[in-house]
Amino acid sequence: MALRTEANARERILMIGSWGTGKSEAWCSIAKWLDQTKAEGQLYVLDTDNAVDRLIEGQPWADRIIPFDLFEWDDYIKAITEARSKGKRDDWLVVDMVDKAWEEVQNFYIQEAFGKDAASFFLQWKTDNGKGSPLAGEYGANWQVINKLYSSFIGKVARFPGHVLACAPVDQVNREQEKSKEILDTYGRFGVKPRGQKALGHQFHTILLALSKGKSGYAYTTIKDRKRTELSNEDVVDFVTSYLVKVAGWKL
């Protein structure tokens, strides 16, 4: 039987974790099982880490992958526009790593608004003053523009016609210094939050924390999920069997 879901809703999954916790292996698992079961679907992989070629090299399922190398902000917009126009309901959009979009849109804005690269901009700010937020501007005007630019990318990610899996590293949650009650309520008990734009988690129905168990493999813990069994340090065979089939109700 082919890997498939009988649900009408498409997956919207954010997988977060430190380096070496199997985040990229999750979408490789999808490609493998699609190929092994001769299921419909391709993976549009937006690669911000220059890692796709190494991950798929020599794999029998490599032809399931449609890669996009993302470096500058224009690459992000062109890639998501093309993927969204070509993607179908059984396809997957993968963004690995999605936090880089937030960093890159700021670099783009600094270059366009101030005519400097980000390093020079922040160095000048530090030399001149170094207080407050260098990108705040008057009444936060700069952040308003940056967030609108960012929305032109992340909004298209959320509206991809098929399934979405995004990967992100984590930042620590400092309970004493964190000002956002929402961040504390959502991520505080886990001690980590996804790196990137602060509202990133709102774009996804599912947030999984990937953990390393050393030589014994990986584990998943649920941070957020809708109407599904929550996992707590659950051993992982692979993403498809351990989450899509076991938790999300997919069929093999």
Structure commentary:
The model has no long low-confidence stretch (mean pLDDT 93). Helix 3 (73-86) packs parallel to helix 6 (141-158) and helix 4 (100-114) packs across helix 6 (141-158). The longest helix has 18 residues, at 141-158. It contains 8 helices and 10 strands. It is α/β, with parallel strands linked by helices. It is 36% helix and 19% strand. It has helices at 23-36, 52-56, 73-86, 100-114, 118-128, 141-158, 181-187, 239-245, and strands at 12-16, 43-47, 65-69, 92-96, 163-168, 170-172, 192-194, 206-212, 218-224, 234-235. The strands form 2 sheets. It has an 8-stranded mixed beta sheet with strand order 3-2-4-5-1-8-9-10, with helices on both faces. The chain has a two-stranded antiparallel ribbon with strand order 6-7.
Tags for this entry?
single chain, 252 residues, alpha/beta, 8-stranded mixed beta sheet, 8 helices, 10 strands, globular
Write the SSE topology:
Layout: E1 12-16, H1 23-36, E2 43-47, H2 52-56, E3 65-69, H3 73-86, E4 92-96, H4 100-114, H5 118-128, H6 141-158, E5 163-168, E6 170-172, H7 181-187, E7 192-194, E8 206-212, E9 218-224, E10 234-235, H8 239-245
Parallel strand pairs: 1-5, 1-8, 2-3, 2-4, 4-5
Antiparallel strand pairs: 6-7, 8-9, 9-10
Helix pairs in contact: 3-6, 4-6
